[in-house]
Write a structure and sequence with these properties.
The protein is an alpha/beta fold. The chain has eleven helices and 13 strands. The structure holds 6-O-phosphono-beta-D-fructofuranose. ATP binds at residues 10, 72-73, 102-105.
Length: 341
Amino acid sequence: MRIGILTSGGDCPGLNAVIRGAVLKGTEINGQEFVGFRDGWRGVVNGDIIPLERSDVRGIGKQGGTILGTSRTNPFEGNGGPERIQETLDRLGIDAIMAIGGEGTLAAAKRLTDAGLKIVGVPKTVDNDLDATDYTFGFDTAVEIATEAMDRLRTTGDSHSRCMVAEVMGRHVGWIALHSGMAAGAHAILIPEQKTSLEQIAEWVQSAANRGRAPLVVVAEGFKPDHEDDPHSERGLDAFGRPRLGGIGERLAPMIEDLTGIETRATTLGHIQRGGVPTAYDRVLATRLGMAASDIVQSGSWGQMVALRGTDIVTVGFEEALGKLKTVPQHRYDEAAMLFG
Ligand code: F6P
């Protein structure tokens, strides 16, 4: 069996560990051969492949990014579509595709599988918002990076008696904000799932300042203050037609300063959260998912993806993966909110 691997959508620490896990298990145990598609679905549509043998994945488990490149190409646009892609796969002698990606990638993979293509999936998102898996690799790394940054913001905030606002990723869900904010001892955590008034935020900030603390406010990029319907976006749309987020922290800072009189500064962590080496946890999770993905190709489980349930790697259908977002449940927010202010 000859398998083409692709990484698609936003990158994420751990992608290379998945590729390595799949290639090592596939070549050593399952008798498979691999090639890599360059830049996600673009490589599939254009038949742009690179060799992926054991020697090509040597040492990559600890590398950030993806050795295959990624893009947000839609495989149904341009020269894409199931028939043309199948012709390309036949021409290249590729029997199956292993698609490593988030919601958009897996949705495309499902449509192609429904049309008869042989595809398995590996879920990927730093936001940790796929309901079908308990954790996605990359999330732990993003939380570590964000926590370290917040620890640093706190010391400079303390020196100047300032309020510091840290903006983290999280388009639809606030998992990165919740975990990094709790780890850093934030005085307020603002997430897309919870509408919060400016007055409430100012109250938490003031209360921390009254105790002699330099307030730390953590905000997810997708947060909407209670008087707004859409998340803050000022930079147009991405290739999937989604608003490019980022900037809510910079917007909130002067509002907090106006309401409290406390000098306030904002920092947007942005893509720093997605760069660099994965944590040990993410390397292990990603390696296990890659190995399991090789197994489900071997068993011909097309339209399925690997996922983490508890500490076990399981298999779920694409439709289950796409059905629901994993939002921060009310009790997890309430638990964190007990420590605000
Ligand atoms: O989906 C993951 C994510 O990191 C979101 O939190 C963010 O909105 C988006 O990707 C940004 O992606 P990019 O700027 O790479 O298109």
